[in-house]
Amino acid sequence: VLLIQPEQLQRQFESQMPEDVRQPSCYARNLLEYCSYSALHLMVQEPDHLSDREFRRLSYDMMLAWEAPAAGCETLSK
């Protein structure tokens, strides 16, 4: 979606986000949220993005990934 290498996206995350967001305890979750936000921000610029099957699938996959990106970050309450 973003047409950049994962390593470059990670470097952007590390250079743009404050240090408290990059702490090891929640690094995976925050990196995932940064990448997802970047992709969603780009995709919603397209007209009729909600009718796009690929967009709907990607947003669903993102919701699943947000549910449990790292074991030690947050405990989910169900």
UniProtKB/TrEMBL annotation:
Protein name: Uncharacterized protein
Species the sequence originates in: Nymphaea colorata (pocket water lily)
